[in-house]
Amino acid sequence: MTLPAIILCIACQFFLVGGQLFLKHAMRDTAEPRPKWAVARGLFAGIFLQSLWFFVWVNLLKDNKLSHIFPFEGLNPVLLVLAAWLFLKERMTIDSWVGILLICAGIFLVSSS
Amino acid sequence: MTDGPAARLPTQSNAPKHRPAILAWLLNPYVQILLGALLATVGEVLLAKGAKLAPSIGGPLFWLGPLASRWTWIGIVAYILSLLSWLYVLRSVPLSVAFPLINVVHVFVPLGAKIFLHETVPPRLWGGISLVLLGVLVIARPLMKAEKKL
Predict the structure, then answer these.
(1) What are phi and psi of A49, to 5 degrees?
(2) Which tens digits make up the pLDDT trace of B83-117?
(3) Which of B44, B124, B140 sits opposite A70 (nearest CB)?
(4) Do residues B74 and B111 make contact, with C-beta atoms less than 8 angstroms apart?
């Protein structure tokens, strides 16, 4: 795989996870009713990022083998754990670090073969 | 319809008897996990097929090119069906059980690419795929505990 393709594959997972986080955030239950535009803004951001993911992904599929780029989807749980650590101040466990190392090693093997 | 809850109750309790066996089997959430994984695999394989078959178009709208293939659209439908199946599964199966199971897609998709797209999957690639799968499962454990608290 070429370096730009690898970078795009990784960026793609950021769009996908970012989109999911926006959608989840917009759809959450809140005690206070929120203005409609606040919900719509979150949904719009989520759908925009997911569309971005789709078009980048489908164009990656054009030039790359599916079996080579699909393992990059394994980065999703990595990004979720890191987002929870950075934004929600959740504590990282040894399990999370071991998992991240395994996935990154796996993706390194995949992208170099 | 004037059916109140009382009027509908007997039909509901009779429903399982009249429901064809195949439908009862299809509504089993564990069968749905497997079907959802297969649908996601079909979706990925068709998106890849469509993207490769669609003619390349130049200009600023080149990124819309893959939409010219009908395989891409069937792939999108398969993807949406797999999402609906996943939502159905999450209604009754805890994420701590469903998430590890749905990750069979990390094995199904490369297999699908090998069988239907005739991609070569060398041992080194299978090694990488196994490491990713293992890593996802290790990470999933604390994530799933967090989900239970929500």
Answers:
(1) -65, -40
(2) 999 989 988 888 778 888 888 899 999 999 999 99
(3) B44
(4) no
